[in-house]
Design brief:
Structural class: alpha/beta
Number of helices: 6
Helix content: 25-40%
Strand content: 15-25%
Radius of gyration: 19 Å
Largest sheet: 8 strands, mixed
Distance between the termini: 28 Å
Number of strands: 8
Shape: globular
Length: 225
């Protein structure tokens, strides 16, 4: 029997790899921009859509997967309601989201740093746009209120840089490190100048301090699933 999958996602790799791993599954990926890969499996398709708008699918799904919508989602309860309405009975919803500000590794004394302060500025500036970058803390209660059952929340720590033990953690650390170096200037320029009134010079100076902090410290993002 064909399984239907809706993917609300900000990266195309996951949808393509899922379709390749499960060729009997029909995968539908949605994104705000038409930047999907040219070559995709025959059981995978992409549409340009906004997950915050009214969903127009004429079918229900067995599984809905979303990830990394933290800085773009204004109304999580409405999103979850649409997921509920578009799931088959017994269907599953899985969502992966980050939180800001980043938190230090377990066992280390909490202290202020340029990187953590940057995350607090992200929280402050996003809030002025009606976005809660700590929204995942409320997911369990929101999902249960709508009617979801067997809700499980898993907090995962990802190391920044390859200092953590184990080959898997080292690989994730290297990848998150590169992602962090790209995110610090991109997020700062987009949010701090528009929402906090910072000048480009202020953002540039903050980027230098944040990158230095990331280089020198051992940090984790809390990644909630």
């Amino acid at each position: 029997m064909e399984t239907l999958l809706s993917v609300v996602i900000d990266t195309r790799i996951w949808a393509v790899e899922f379709a390749e791993a499960f060729p009997g599954t029909q995968v539908i990926g949605t994104d705000l921009s038409p930047i999907q890969p040219d070559f995709i499996p025959p059981n995978c398709q992409f549409i340009v859509d906004n997950a915050e708008h009214d969903w127009v699918f004429d079918r229900k799904f067995d599984y809905i997967h979303s990830r990394m919508l933290t800085l773009g989602m204004h109304d999580w309860p409405r999103f979850f309601r649409q997921c509920w309405e578009h799931l088959e009975p017994g269907g599953w919803l899985e969502t992966h989201e980050t939180q800001f500000p980043p938190k230090r590794a377990d066992g280390e004394q909490a202290r202020q740093s340029a990187f953590i302060t940057w995350g607090e500025h992200v929280y402050e500036s996003a809030a002025t746009a009606g976005i809660d970058v700590r929204a995942s803390e409320k997911f369990t209660s929101q999902l249960e209120w709508i009617g979801f059952v067997n809700v499980e929340k898993v907090d995962v720590q990802w190391p920044i840089k390859a200092w953590a033990k184990g080959s898997k953690n080292k690989l994730m650390g290297r990848l998150l490190y590169q992602n962090t170096l790209e995110a610090i200037p991109a997020v700062g320029t987009a949010l701090f100048t528009r929402r906090l009134g910072w000048t480009k010079e202020q953002v540039d100076a903050d980027v230098v301090e944040c990158v230095k902090d990331v280089e020198e410290e051992r940090n984790h993002f809390y990644y909630s699933m």
